Amino acid sequence: xxxxxxxxxxxxxxxxxxxxxxxxxxxxxxxxxxxxxxxxxxxxxxxxxxxxxxxxxxxxxxxxxxxxxxxxxxxxxxxxxxxxxxxxxxxxxxxxxxxxxxxxxxxxxxxxxxxxxxxxxxxxxxxxxxxxxxxxxxxxxxxxxxxxxxxxxxxxxxxxxxxxxxxxxxxxxxxxxxxxxxxxxxxxxxxxxxxxxxxxxxxxxxxxxxxxxxxxxxxxxxxxxxxxxxxxxxxxxxxxxxxxxxxxxxxxxxxxxxxxxxxxxxxxxxxxxxxxxxxxxxxxxxxxxxxxxxxxxxxxxxxxxxxxxxxxxxxxxxxxxxxxxxxxxxxxxxxxxxxxxxxxxxxxxxxxxxxxxxxxxxxxxxxxxxxxxxxxxxxxxxxxxxxxxxxxxxxxxxxxxxxxxxxxxxxxxxxxxxxxxxxxxxxxxxxxxxxxxxxxxxxxxxxxxxxxxxxxxxxxxxxxxxxxxxxxxxxxxxxxxxxxxxxxxxxxxxxxxxxxxxxxxxxxxxxxxxxxxxxxxxxxxxxxxxxxxxxxxxxxxxxxxxxxxxxxxxxxxxxxxxxxxxxxxxxxxxxxxxxxxxxxxxxxxxxxxxxxxxxxxxxxxxxxxxxxxxxxxxxxxxxxxxxxxxxxxxxxxxxxxxxxxxxxxxxxxxxxxxxxxxxxxxxxxxxxx
Amino acid sequence: xxxxxxxxxxxxxxxxxxxxxxxxxxxxxxxxxxxxxxxxxxxxxxxxxxxxxxxxxxxxxxxxxxxxxxxxxxxxxxxxxxxxxxxxxxxxxxxxxxxxxxxxxxxxxxxxxxxxxxxxxxxxxxxxxxxxxxxxxxxxxxxxxxxxxxxxxxxxxxxxxxxxxxxxxxxxxxxxxxxxxxxxxxxxxxxxxxxxxxxxxxxxxxxxxxxxxxxxxxxxxx
Lengths: 673, 222
What we know:
The complex is a heterodimer. By secondary structure, chain A is mainly beta.
């Protein structure tokens, strides 16, 4: 919908963005809904609306029209995808009030958001965080700490949608895609002028100001003929919290983050040029305490920068796309010991990744065959004080995927894919995959896939050189450690008998071999631990999800998740995984009032943990089941404004093995123009 | 093309905007500081020529040859040598051929000047399970000296104090904390005196490791 710029907006925001060359108010509104005559040669007289096309942009409210890119590394309708793709779209992100990617993913029943060394991370299908690949616009996000990527780092202000593909996806994406892929798609300008903003204030410790949270996001977008621009800025603050008052250490760090993003697009004929920039600075402040009585003031300063350029050309039946991406991550880690300088630490970690990707997708005239051919070339480096040397490696990875519509009546699609990663450090790894889809009835969709996954050893596993001086043990990397490999099987059925009822059943099994684990180096004279390909693990389970609209305005989703996750080497259940989990979500919007309410939560069953007792024996501890419960109310005021208020972790879950943010309340204001 | 120029101009101004934003964030440095604390004994002493000889050792004598000994052995490379007879730190030119020092400390390692460790003739007897005050001179047969490396996890000599399979401390594999065992060591010093010592702590008040605190007392000899 075209909008004429209103005078009240014209001064401050656009000036702040210093985009003097673009002034939407000087131009008549562009009707994006009508195809421009030059695009429509041969269809009636120029300019006459004889053959008006459907809107060029998908309508976010209609599920059927959602475009996804992750399943096949090309744009396709979500309902057409061979591999099931879950999507959290803009509307859902707004509804749930999520402030970062970790919070947004809490809404997906099959995904567990778990606390990490810094912030929160994701566990898919019971696999550790290092086995899920995280992408932004198809490009890998770097800066993992102990294998886990802190997803609270990625703000949502400039996010259009989040796509999730479960199961090994190394056949398209290479390393770290054992458990699946999460692809965060950034927003781009669609209307001539759009402004949006959000301010949210909250607290989870009403008696201490340090528990205050603040979340501010502002965005502006301009679209003028073939030119698109979108700019976003954000400020995020989360106070520290402490779940264990018996020691001076904090449980959760105080976080302050500033971030900004810029996305530009220009169409020239059949070619689309794009440029994307993201920067952020994140400060973490906390207190650590050691069992010896030492107390440390801890700080992390994390700076991130990502730049990518894309060039995409459409041909009659195909698309050629090339993407160049450079990203840098820096984490400065400081420990300041109280009362002494002996154990002060000031360490720097710098990681860099450069990638050039190019791919060509072509579909035959009868739409029965689609070929995708491409290659990724990647160079990564890591400089860290704890590494014995600078880590650097180069990888070239050609890939191919073929989608064949074998039977039109049953919509039977067969899609084999294959990728080879040739790496300067560990050599070649091949990742095949076969995906099938069948619609035996118009209400029923069946999907199955089998694929290979792998994860390249990280530089810490290769080159770490760490010594604990107080007791004299050392941990050293092993340059000859090999990539982990896995087989993954996924089976899924969805049944939608009416618009008001949807059922989804899925079964999966992942087996990872050559898992990298630490082990005592028997050949060394001193106590030395090193990394070896020693373990293997199996995760298998099922998910049953029910979606209902029992009455107008009410949406209900109920899910049960069963998980069997085993460490085959130690012959026991994997640490911290619940065997049973149930989630629920209900949203009610009172028709005609602009009021809506959401209640969501999960009941998580017992989780096993292992402790070494005084006598050296390993004991299993079963942590109690818990309930996590969130609620949120929203009232629309006028056309552009919404007021909201909510509460997180209402049941106050948390404990020794459960580092959850305490109960918290927030309220705020959202503007979408 | 009009709109393509817009694209370039917007790219440039957008980049400037983000650089400014980035610069705004680059304010306070986060390096660790002194907190006004003294830090290591040697840090406080600095390179002053008039600094006392025993920067790493402090004796607090309560009279009659008994008291408390504080050692800063936190440096992983350097041994700290202590003369119990003179109640002072010594810096022997050749520790292997020196008859002044009695005990040497490096992290949790404690060497005595005898056996494979030195030529001072120091021997040590271990007494377990007795309160410090009740320990008297053990029989001559129970005195040992530091030996060459035997059956244990390290490649260091088997010091009577800290080597072998039964060192002075208990090690917690979960927390990596060292806790002293209830054990008294009776030494025959380089001067031939009998002194009993017990390691009471391994950490200083700031929680720093490598800071053993020892209780000592003269033992009457017949």
